[in-house]
Amino acid sequence: MRPGVSRTWRRRTIDILNRWAAYVYAPLMDDRARKIQDTSTGVYGREIAETVHQDLRKIGGVAPPREFVFMDRAAVGLGSVFLHLKAEVNWHRLFNSLIEDFSTAALAKRQATTFKAAGVPLPE
User: How far apart are CA 68 and CA 97, in angstroms?
Assistant: First the structure.
């Protein structure tokens, strides 16, 4: 635990972030065909985002990595498209089929090849 950060603060932060995660990742956790969101408008998602943002500001905020912010925005954007299209899919099975063959070793090899070809040093 970081110096000066109480367990209560950490617990509160986790509780707030879990509300957002429950909203964003709910379709991936539910093994059935469903819409990306149970409501037909983006109002519910906006309300969740606003309350999470307000609650995080009350406790001093958080500093997520840039990669998280990018992926989070991409998920929200794609979610909006799926909501508009009224797409009904088993998101759980679709996601699991995409990651079933994932290999960190294969990823590291592809990244090393790409970085080398671009003349960029590998991050440490």
Answer: 22
